[in-house]
Amino acid sequence: MTETFTPTLYRLQSVASGKIFDDEGWTLEAPGEKEPTLIRALYEKKQLEPGSEEWGFYRFSGWLPVKRMLEGSSAPVTYKSEALAGRLGMNDLWITFSGYWPERGAMMMTCSFKETEAYSVCGRMDPGSEKVLVVASAGNTARSFARVCSDNHIPLLLFVPEDYIDCLWFDRPLNDSVKLAVSRSGSDYFDSIHLSSIASKVPGFIPEGGAKNVARRDGMGTTVLSAVTAMGRIPDFYFQAIGSGTGAIAAWEANLRLLEDGRFGKGKMKLIVSQNYPFVPIRHAWEAGSRTMLPMDDEEARSQAEAIIAKVLSNRRPNYHMAGGLYDAMMDAGGHVMAATNEEALAAGKLFEETEGIDLHPAAGVAVATLMKAVKDGLVKKNSCVMLNITGGGEGKFMREKELYYLKPSEVFDINPDPREVADRITRLFF
Question: Would you state the CATH architecture of domain 77-111+216-399?
Answer without folding.
Answer: 3-Layer(aba) Sandwich (3.40)
